[in-house]
Fold each of these.
Amino acid sequence: MIIETKTSQAIQSNTPTIMTANNVDVFYGKKQAICNVSLNIPENQITALIGPSGCGKSTFLRCFNRMNDTINICRVSGEIKFSGQNIYDPKVDVVALRSRIGMVFQKANPFPKSIFENVAYGPRIHGLAESKDELESIVIRSLKRAGLYDEVSDRLSEPGTSLSGGQQQRLCIARAIAVDPQVILMDEPCSALDPIATAIIEDLMETMKEKYTIVIVTHSMQQAARVSQQTAFFHLGELVESGDTQAIFTNPIQERTQNYISGRIG
Amino acid sequence: MPNYILSTSRQMAKRHAREKRFKWYGRIAIFISIAFLVFMFSAIIFRGASAFQQTKISLDINFSESILDPSSSRDPDLLKRANYKPIVVESLLSVIPEVTERRDRNRLYKLLSTGAVFDLGEKVADDPSILGKSKKVWLLASSEVDLFMKGKIDPNVSEDLRRLKDRDIEWIEILKSEGRIKKKFNKTLFTNGDSREPEMAGILGAAIGSFFSLLVCFLIAFPLGILTAVYLEEYAKKNFITDFIEVNINNLAAVPSIVFGLLGLSIFLNFFHLPRSTPLVGGIVLALMTLPTIIIASRSILRSIPQSIRDAALGLGASKTQTTFHHVVPLAMPGMLTGTILGMARALGETAPLLMIGMVAFIVDIPKGVTDVATSLPVQIFLWADSPEKGFVERTSAAIMVLLAFLILMNICAVYLRKRLERRW
């Protein structure tokens, strides 16, 4: 069955891959959450991970910047390559890795500090700005890229938590952009937002993909269809099928994928 | 039955009654606890309020140089130790001239506190130019006179049963009629150390002793407690060893405080030979006692900081230590401080462990550092409550009031900090 899952991947061969997962297994204690998953992430494209609740798509996403390290009982095996290097190699510095691969979480989690401080924190700890002016320009540039600057330009010193839900999520995107990563992982970034805020963020992702590679976990199949170029369907910890988004949604190869997108499972 | 749901059935009535009953149980419980509190406070205030006043007798003292400083040396030490009794008796006789016998003169002199001459000595030593002049001075009355003035000695009781005789009362009435005896604010209570004489006893020594003990306690318990809590909560892996440590911290919080006193006695005094009866040892013992409280409070605060804040920082590439000290600890700090202050408030009221390490001694001097012998406020209360002199009864209550005031102040600080620094997300 696993051999079958790779059938539609050939379509992606024309774009360079930035990350490659090979035979990844994830265990929570004794329970296996991810089972032998292999997936290529094409550069400057949006890859959507879809599947029913509890299928392991978030867990798999968190493998890409080793956020699972923070969970005590979690164990990851297999390899994930980022620009040719296995990120699970003991020599890899997790802190450096996460500055290259940023993350936006399901629930907007701005620091309880000012809007400016929220965005400035990343560049500050990584020493990206030599002077105050430089830091300020990084913050403004990041806020602009996240499409938030016009809304907050006159109140940068107000707490980030005072913004609306959608604005908070874009603030988190700006914060992730500020350290200039190559890949941005998004874990259901719109699940707590209303349709208008969701549309704004989806538009934003469309422009962001010119500069960054995005991997997004989403509950909404419509969202995956709208924003992504590649889609991977997870079920019960396995990667059932992956490939070109259009192909997956119009002409899935696996029966389980067919059942999921037509609403019969999940 | 379209109206069924709008009408009260028997079952609904029962439910409402139960709800009402429960509300009243709560109100009664609150009422009883407030009644106890009011009873306790009013008893203490009723007994202790009079201790904030003190009887003083004003006399026209002739600072005769030939008696006080016959050699004209002006040496402050000599002036302090000079014989003031003759000049005091002389001025007393000028007010009450009918006393002639030597025994009666001594009795008259006893109206004043034995500390009165020390006060005079201090006065003259401070300003020797007063010698040779005559001046009106307010002198401390003896405790018996003080109690009489406060209406705590009943003159109708048989004379044999009171130390203040009818003669003394006559004299007091004379002084009263001349306006020479008055109740004034009791400064002594706040400026003196302990004393065998109630009218000269104060709580300053004990308060400073408490302050130094708490200072040592804070300097040890706060950093140790916070670091332990941060390490256990943020860094340590959950395994057998950390579980074991956690269980033991909880056990330690439940250990009776006197056991910590015994520990201090056997380890700090007998093994390390640290100075006995000092705030240094007292502070260390109190720190050991407060440590579990601080650790438990800090850990629960750290646990309440949302994981999303840690994720946000880690996701940006902050290291574990940066995440902890840039975000988690600052957010937890108000709660940690609150826990610490509450722990310290408990330590301030603690008596038993201090008894074991000798802070229960009778100490007149006011401590100047953590290695000076000292006592503490609750121990002072314990000592005074144990004293047979009647004048200590009101002073005990007054000391309790001062201790309570400090405790309430600390708790208000804790509440204020929590309100002020609390952040929402």
Amino acid sequence: MNKVPIEAGLILAGILFMLGLISVLIRRNIIFMLISVEVMLNAAGLAFIVAGSRWGQADGQVMFIFILTMAAAEVSVGLALILQIYHQLKTLDSDAANKMKG
Amino acid sequence: MQLTFYVTSAIAIIATLMVITRHNLIHALLYLVVSFLAVAVAFYMLGAPFMAALEVIIYAGAIVVLIIFVIMMLNLKQESVEQEKQWMGDGIILGPVLLSVVLLAELLYIIIAGEPSTSNFQMVDAKAVGLSLYGPYVIGVELSGILLMSGIVGAYHLGRQKKKIVHRFLEKPVD
């Protein structure tokens, strides 16, 4: 019943990843950059799922679970960092945090 | 079936395009939810229904809600939208977009130029995933636990704010 070619899934993953990459590159707002990283992680997980379904193995889905765990941990720490930056610098500009002052 | 997958892919791509072009953070997040839901439908069609459920629960549920809470805490005003418009200015975005599109074109060429696949997608149920997860990959599960624990500790440590003692006579910040 499933006649979707594997290329279609991989192309979708590639396009989504590239959209996330473009957004990381063109944004200066640090929260938007975090969201874009989420989009890229999601696209990578999609590629894993496609490959896992192609070969009928569970490894792709296991890798997706690990990516999911990593994304959850990353977003919590990233948001805490964003809160600190906003309280100290009063801006969300990622360029404002280019000096380390301990 | 095939048409459904293509429609879902189109929805995911359009929603992600809207995410990366919005100026308002909340609008971008709502489009991000749509994008995640579309990817979840794609997972379902690729034969991974358990991952589709996880995508909805964790990505569209937990992570997006976490970001929305932080936006509420930051209490952003209308000026932030104006500033975002200014930052997104006209000429600046062209260079990265062009270079990335060239990379994407190369990637698509490599995917398409290979010999076309003949076999179809196979259904992998949650039982096989669970057996694999707690069989050969059990060390990964333990490492994920350590990662989540350090994530909790790190988020608590970074998110803590310096306490300020407010008193009638004695008002100075204390570390």
